[in-house]
Please model this.
Amino acid sequence: MKEFTYVITDKEGIHARPAGELVKLAKSYASSVFVIKEGKKADAKKVFGLMGLGVKQGMEITVQVEGEDEDTAAVALETFLKENL
Amino acid sequence: MAEEFLDKKFSGKTVYNGITMGKVLVLRKDQEQIRRIRVENPEQETKRVQDAVDVSKQQLSMLYNKAVKEVGESSAAIFEVHQMMLEDEDYLDAIYHVIRTEMVNAEYAVAVTGDNFAGMFAGMDDEYMQARAADVKDISARLVRNLSGQNNMDFSTMEPSIIVAEDLSPSETVQMDKKKILAFVTVHGSTNSHTAILARMMNIPALIGVPMDLREIQTGMTAVVDGAAGEVIFEPTESECSKAAQKIAAEREKLRLLQELKGKKNETSDGRTINIYANIGSVSDVGYVLENDAGGIGLFRSEFLYLGRDNFPSEEEQFQAYKQVVQTMGQKKVIIRTLDIGADKQADYFALGKEENPALGYRAIRICLKQPEIFKTQLRALLRAAAYGNLSIMYPMIISAEEVKQIGSIVEEVETELKQAQIPHRRPEQGIMIETPAAVMVSDELAVLVDFFSIGTNDLTQYTLAIDRQNQRLEDFYNPHHKAILRMIQMVVDNAHKCGKWVGICGELGADTQLTETFVNMGVDELSVAPPMVLKVREKVRAI
Model:
C-alpha cells in the first residue's frame, strides 16, 4: 500500500469540479483509492463520498492507494493534487 | 401507442391565425406527486433505474457540449459533475437497496434516496457543500422525469417546437426562448389570456380549448397547427402535410406583400393620419417593433422585469433595461407602463396573498401607492432613462383624480432626490391608462392632470361588461364591439381633445381591423398593437 499526505491550497477546497476530476482519475486505476480527512475515510472513486468529506483550504488529507498499479496511481494522484488543489 | 393513436385531429378556439408545422414539445405540470407503489419484481425496477441513468447521462452530455460552446468550459463543468454523480455507486446502491428491501417502484426509490443525500449535504457546515444539495435534487428529479417519461421543460436545449400544454402561466412563457416557439396549443385558456397575447406578439398560431388528452401526445411528434381552420393535427399524413405546406407558402406570400407597406404613411385617402405603435413585453421584443416598422412603442409592459424571478429588480437593472429600449428606438416614442402586477400576473416575492376577486383587487397602481418604495425604485429608473431618449410613463388602473395627484407628488419627490444627488434625469411626458369605467366617467377631470390617455380595452371591457376574461364559459357573452365600449371610447377622446391631450388605444381592440375606420372617425390619435399587426392596420388605414 502506498500512502501520502497533502495539504489543500485551493481556496474552495475539494469542490465539485476537481472532485469529479479526481474521481475520474482514481477510477482509471485498478487499485483502491481512499481519501482520509480527520479520521473520516471516503472512497475516491465515488464523488458523493469525496465531496461529503467537506475538505477545505488548509486541511490535510491522507491518500491511501492499494493494488497492482499502486505505484503509478499514487504518483499520478499526487501530481493531480499538486496541480489542481 | 402510436397505432392506437387514432384520434389525432382536434379543433380548438383560434386566438391567432397562421399555420405552422413542426415538432411537438409537451409541457407537463411540474413534478406530479410521486407515488409509492409496491412491486412484485424489484429487478425490473432496478433495470428501469439503469435505463433512466443512461438516458440522463446522454442528456447531460448534450447539455455539457452545448454549454461549453455557449458559456465556456468552466461553467459547463457542472453538467459533467452531474454525470459523475449519476455514476456514483453509493447513490445507485442506495436506490437499489430501497427498491429491493421495500419492494417499491423506481420513482419512489429515487426520490427518497435523492432526499436523503440532499439532506446529508444540506446538513454540512459549509455553504458550498450545502449548495450541492441542490445538485443532488436536480439529478434525482432528472431521473424521476426520465423514469416516468415526463420530459419536463428544459428550455436550454429546446428545439423550435409547437408548445402543447394543459395551460401556460405568464411566468412559464416568460422563460421561453421566443425564437424557438412555433405555436401554442393548450387544453385550457381563453382568447384574452396572456398566452394569447403572447401569440399575437410573436405572430404565431395559437389554439386554446383543445380537447386533447396529453397522455396520448408525446414530445417529438410532428404536428400541423392551422389557426385559420382552428385545427391541430398530430402525426399528419403525407397529404395533410403537403396541404399544410401549400398554405404555409400562401401565407408567406401574403406577408411579403405586407412588407411593401414598410416606410409608407398611415394615411387615409382623404388625408387623415393616425399613429400606429407597437405593444411589447420585454427588451428582446424591440426587434419586432423595428422589423414591423411601428412608429413607436405604445405600451411597454414593465412586468417582464418582475416576473419569473425571486426578488425585486434593482433600480440599476431597470434603468439599464429602459435605457437600452429608448436608445434602440432612437427618437421614436417609448411609452412604459409602470408595474401592473396582481390579478392574473403574480410573482411570489410580492407576497400578495390570495384574494377572493383578484381582478377587482390589490393590483397595479394600488400596489404602487400602498408600497411606495417599490414604486419609487421604478420611477427613479424611468426618470433616469428618460434622459437618454423619447420616453413616456403611463400609469395603469387609475380610478380617480386623487390617485393621479398622489402619483404626481411621488414623482416630484423622486425628481428632487435625483436632482440633489446630481444624477442625470428628465421628467418625461406622463399619461394614464383608461381601463376602468370610473376613469372613463371622470376623464374630463383626468385630462387636465395628464399629458395623454391610453385606453386599455381588455380590462375596460371586462369591467364594463362584468365578464371575467379568463373564464372560458363566458366567451360567448364577451362582445368586444359592445356599444357601451365604443361610446366610452368616444367620450374619452372628446374629453381629452377638449384639453388638447392625445388619446391612444393599447388593448387588443386597437388591432381589430374591423374597427380601424371607426377609430379614425372617432378621432383616436394612436393605435398600439402587437408588432405583427402594425402593417395589417396600416393597410386598413390606407384603404379608408
Remarks:
- Residues 70-84 of chain A form the longest helix (15 residues).
- The beta strands of chain A are 2-7, 32-37, 40-43, 60-66.
- Chain A has one domain: 2-84.
